[in-house]
Write a structure and sequence with these properties.
The protein has 381 residues and is mainly beta. The chain is built from one helix and 34 strands. The strands form nine sheets. It has a four-stranded antiparallel beta sheet with strand order 2-34-33-32, with no helix packed on it. The longest helix has 14 residues, at 16-29.
């Protein structure tokens, strides 16, 4: 379940009750899963060509891949950070953050930022470390680099802005949502126009990037149940943004879309999933916890289709690109599905290890990162 008690950077869990809760959660996460059905023969109705590959050390932490034009920035658990030209696979630069990572990577194409297990945000550029600054708590969401600033969302529900060039702390805003557990998964943090949009619990919050003050809040889901685990509905994973509309997933609860100009929830639908969503002008796409792939109509959330041929498989959030949805799996397979009905069009296996992050698109290239540190560029027809 990847849960963690809210805590500051230094102290550890000390109470017996807390330790029992964490142990119980760990035990339930170890329950054997039913075995999924065998995949049907690959139809190969869509041509997919591997254009290039690159290699990093192992990626066994929450990873978000940054895309800026044709440049993708990736990171490995040991602190390696690299920028790659997605057109050719050429490495533009590589550097080390100097410590193992818990989150990465954000970039504006010039400056990249990651977060270490020492609870430091590290900014890098051109293969060199620019600065390091201590954080108030652990972080599992990649920093956002935008407007010459670095924004960090920590597990204690705080958001902090740093000057991108010097690392000077500009402001910190602390928010309380009443939950004592947080997910060890990437959350939501992105710019929309002149607003910083963040996931705080089950709410999308629009903030003034100059001082962190809230401009609006919109709930995607409501906490439910009677205990901390049942009430955990943090926004998680990738989002789908089209214009001023942002669609996001609340953990094991719902998928919904928010108008970020008016700060208004447009719709929300029940959905039992733990990873983010993808989308286009017509639809929002997600993967359920049972491996079902679902499409919702973007304007009102009505179901368009669902596909269950990947049922019981552990899948990433979908990437909508061209005619396809691209979805990674923990078996190491990358599935290319039709955006019209979810049927398989092709599948590839990069290096046999689990897919480490939701696939991303850079130009005409789909970039996939594996747990073994493989970075692969694919060109679908």
């Amino acid at each position: 379940m990847n849960l963690k008690r809210l805590m500051p950077a230094a102290p550890v869990l000390r109470t017996g009750a807390a330790m029992v809760l964490i142990a119980a959660l760990a035990a339930c996460s170890g329950t054997p899963k039913p075995k999924p059905a065998e995949l049907q023969p690959n139809p190969s109705t869509l041509g997919v060509r591997q254009a290039w590959s690159a290699k990093l050390p192992a990626v066994n932490m929450p990873l978000q891949v940054a895309v800026n034009g044709d440049t993708v920035t990736v990171a490995a658990a040991d602190g390696t950070v690299a920028a790659i030209d997605a057109r050719s696979g050429t490495q533009l630069w590589r550097a080390s953050a100097g410590a193992e990572l818990t989150a990465g990577v954000g970039s504006d194409g010039q400056t990249a930022a990651v977060v270490t297990r020492d609870n430091e945000v590290v900014a890098l550029a051109g293969g060199k470390v620019l600065w390091k600054e201590r954080l108030s708590a652990e972080t599992f969401t990649a920093p956002l680099v935008a407007g010459r600033r670095v924004f960090v969302q920590a597990a204690d529900r705080s958001t902090t802005a740093f000057d991108g060039a010097s690392g000077r702390r500009l402001w910190t805003q602390q928010r309380t949502v009443g939950d004592s557990l947080v997910l060890r998964k990437p959350g939501v943090l992105l710019p929309v126009g002149d607003t910083l949009v963040a996931g705080v619990g089950a709410r999308l919050v629009g903030m003034n990037p100059g001082n962190g003050l809230s401009r609006w809040e919109a709930p995607v889901a409501a906490p439910r149940g009677t205990n901390d685990v049942e009430r955990l509905v943090d926004l998680t994973g990738t989002v789908s943004r089209v214009g001023d509309t942002v669609c996001a997933r609340a953990y094991y609860a719902a998928v919904g879309c928010v108008d970020t100009v008016r700060g208004m929830l447009l719709w929300t639908k029940p959905s039992v999933g733990s990873d983010g969503v993808g989308g286009d002008e017509r639809a929002v796409y997600g993967t359920e916890n049972n491996g079902t792939v679902v499409a919702w109509r973007r304007n009102d959330g009505q179901p368009m289709w669902s596909a269950d041929h990947l049922r019981l498989r552990t899948l990433t959030a979908p990437l909508a690109v061209g005619r396809t949805l691209v979805i990674g799996e923990d078996t190491g397979t990358v599935h290319f599905l039709s955006r019209e009905d979810g049927k398989t069009m092709n599948r590839v296996t990069p290096d046999g290890s689990a897919i480490a992050a939701a696939p991303v698109a850079a130009g005409n290239t789909v970039v996939v990162v594996t747990r073994n540190g493989g970075v692969f560029g694919y060109r679908p027809e």
